[in-house]
Design goal:
The structure is a homodimer. The first copy, chain A, contains 10 helices and 13 strands. By secondary structure, chain A is α+β, with helices and mostly antiparallel strands. In chain A, the strands form 3 sheets. In chain A, strands 8-10-7-11-9-12-13 form a 7-stranded mixed sheet. In chain A, strands 3-6-4-5 form a 4-stranded mixed sheet.
């Protein structure tokens, strides 16, 4: 078994270097040089074993996901990621586990040039807390409260895959590794988020479920929304699962853990958004419209539709 | 029982307002305006139940301590606190518990004008993770690697109290609430830390024990240290505990959780440091000297002295 300081050394050896990190891991705190004239964007999310990932999740996937869910929040703000801190609670100081965890964490950190600058390792039930830091130019941030009546509603990717993976791994039937990969290794839509300022009005990441997160946007913006649930794209893997249409719709509308972006934009931005998404390499789809009111109304086959389950509450879910 | 979003509302209602917080709790991430020309100082520490605080600790004390241990890291850097994020894992969404937790957290946050700008609440074994953000002018930060041969070594306050409280509450004998208060409600030495840039060379906070943390300074600075363990001030409460001298010395030299500052400074700064400490309202005491070499050597009654226990490792206990 390793000690706390051995683990810290292992972590330090895997850090992405950046010129704006003045003091990294190894002092009482990190010392960082924010870029002049930019605003700082900060998000923090914890993953607890058995709550945010199944107990059988590979350490590398836990490492990836712990950073991914946080980068997804920066993506939803249109921010450029820069730094992160990591607090790792482990039942035992297991160096092999930490190395595997870092394999996933570092792989995603390198993709986005994110430097791990501090944090702690300590004993406790398995839990991973990450704080991420990014930057936006003043006035360029994507907010939840900026949706306007008449905006079109867009979603990236194919929501529902992660929720179906969770369902498959909780049951005894067939299990599709392609779906599991979407649960374990979500792709934070950082590239898309960086394309959206100036085009989109409001944005949010779908961590709690499409309808629930869209409701957050509507509440913050004092607007309503109408979406066609059958316009939400279905992945090949989710289609191959052979679900009843309504079961599939519920996963897509209310399943958590997708980490896709949902955003609103004026009709006139449609072509520019398609071009921006192409540039970012992320498929986007129009699924509805912002309307007067306060409610999120879904339709399927032209008729009002309600999911079997409303959304994700980290205490209720 | 409350839901996740009820708890977030309770937390949001208790936040200290600051002009440099553009977007607070309620979006995908916080949006902050760093002051021009300053460097950002970031620390992150987690408290897990039964590891970092006894299971019988009052929620308000957990709230206080979770912020205090992080502010202590900023103090050791000479930084001015500004913002924090909080991730709270709770077995149940207990609103009364959260309100009590916030009583302690908010009390300390108001003392230092720290705005809680984001984070999350989720289900899991009781665990509190805080990230704090502060600022220093470039070149003014207090580092671990800046100790020089000939520096005097100083310590604030009366180390050992928290360790004796932990010992008393782990045993069946007499228990002194004054000592327990030092364990549960440590005072981060922010005011002292802000006085030290320009006077002190190196600084660290004593979270792992005086000798262990001084060894971190020596390692980072490539120097050795000699300290007179009997020069370390003893609080009235610790003296009243009536310990054998060597037991008391061990608590003072190696007990964790004190959150006092240990710093080094040239002899010529002696009077200025005494004046600065008076200004900060924090007693400071000279306990030794930085020397050539790599080792931390303690003496008691003029003879070499070794504690029964070396220091605090969060995995070693």
């Amino acid at each position: 078994m390793a000690g706390e300081f051995d683990l810290i050394d292992r972590i330090r050896a895997r850090v992405v270097a950046r010129d704006d990190v003045v003091l990294c891991i190894g002092d009482d705190a990190a010392l960082l040089q924010p870029p002049a004239g930019m605003q700082l964007v900060v998000a923090m999310d914890t993953l607890n074993a058995g709550i945010h990932f199944p107990h059988d999740t590979a350490p590398a996937d836990i490492g990836w996901k712990a950073l991914a869910v946080n980068l997804s929040d920066l993506a939803a703000m249109g921010a450029t990621p820069a730094w992160c801190t990591l607090s790792l609670s482990l039942p035992e100081p297991d160096a092999a586990w930490v190395d595997a965890f870092l394999d996933g964490f570092e792989a995603l950190a390198r993709q986005h040039a994110v430097a791990l600058v501090g944090g702690d390792t300590t004993r406790g039930p398995l839990s991973v807390c990450v704080t991420v830091f990014g930057f936006v130019s003043p006035g360029r941030v994507l907010r939840r409260d900026a949706a306007s009546v008449g905006d079109e509603i867009w979603v990236s990717g194919t929501p529902g895959d992660a929720a179906e993976a969770l369902a498959q791994w909780s049951a005894c039937g067939a299990r599709d590794p392609a779906l599991r990969a979407r649960l374990d290794r979500p792709t934070p839509r950082v590239a898309l988020g960086l394309q959206l300022p100036g085009l989109a009005h409001a944005a949010i990441d779908i961590s709690d479920g499409l309808l629930a997160d869209l409701a957050h946007v509507c509440c913050a913006s004092s607007v309503g929304a109408e979406i066609d649930i059958d316009a939400v794209p279905v992945s090949d893997a989710l289609r191959a699962a052979g679900l009843e249409p309504d079961t599939r719709r519920t996963l897509q509308a209310s399943g958590g853990d997708d980490y896709e972006l949902c955003f609103t934009a004026p009709v006139g931005a449609r072509d520019a958004i398609v071009a921006a998404a192409l540039e970012a390499g992320v498929p986007v789809t129009r699924i509805g419209r912002i309307v007067k009111g306060r409610d999120v109304v879904a339709t399927a086959n032209g008729a009002p539709w309600t999911p079997a389950r409303a959304g994700w509450d980290h205490f209720g879910g």
